[in-house]
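Self-study notes.
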Amino acid sequence: MSTHRQIVAITYETAARAVAVAMEVGEQHGVKTVVSVADPSMTLIAYGMADGATPHSAETSRRKAATSASTRRRTGLIPEALSTALPLGTGGALTTIDGGVPIVFGDTHVGGLGVAGGSPAQDAEIALKTLKRLGANTVGFEQQ
């Protein structure tokens, strides 16, 4: 019997870079973004909020990051059968609003990125562009 397990998680340096890149991409799209990065245990690692962003987007971005970190799925691609059950069953901790994507380098899942502030489609586009600029995988996360 094993006495412990090892968990791989995104570093603060990479998480902070993801936030900076997403903020820059959001600005290029004219969106006042709020960006969160969570590790696979749904712990917030890095966060940024553009001046003038809506206050509720802070919580939305955190939930998107936590959902993608935990489920390893893009929030907007979670199966319809779970679209109501997931948020209700977790007391609102998780969401199916698009704009959350898993962060995967090679075959290694390290966390989730949540972008809020625009429409769900804009948030998802910013998140995917951020993954590409970081050199993270986007395969399977782009369809919608």
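Second protein, same conventions, sequence then structure:
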Amino acid sequence: MKAPFPGKHQYAPGRRNNRANHLHEDAWKDFVSYLQEAGSRITTARRIVFDEVIDRGDHFRADDLAADLARGQNRVSRGTVYRTIALMVKAGFLRAIRDGDTHFHYEYIYGHTHHEHMICESCGDFIEFEAPEIIRAITRRCREHDFQEHHHRLSIFGICKKCASGK
């Protein structure tokens, strides 16, 4: 059997349950299609970044991901991490969310329902929530102004319950 990636070493992704693995592989196939259409290379390093992003399951900063992937058996360069994140955003696999500072956090959104965020200005926690009434209001306003929405982001900044109670 031919190796899935050219290069010096074989990469073995982490273990997942069958359903999660199937969804993950479907996402990877779609990302590979995007890379091919964009004329970008399909590399082991990009697969490592892709897998790590999906496996994290959090709202992460690119610097944190780059630091995590700078050590260990499956090391990936900082530049590759940033370029792969940019491609994943452009392809619709990740959403960039600006926090109260100037930092961007990223979340894996492929196959997930649309949701908004509350961001604690004290501890930095992200609280996700769905709000169909907000989406309906945005759709209505766009229609009233003959505006073609491509996407939207709603981030509400404040203090979470845990920080407000001093715990």
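Instructor comment on the second fold: The radius of gyration is 18 Å.
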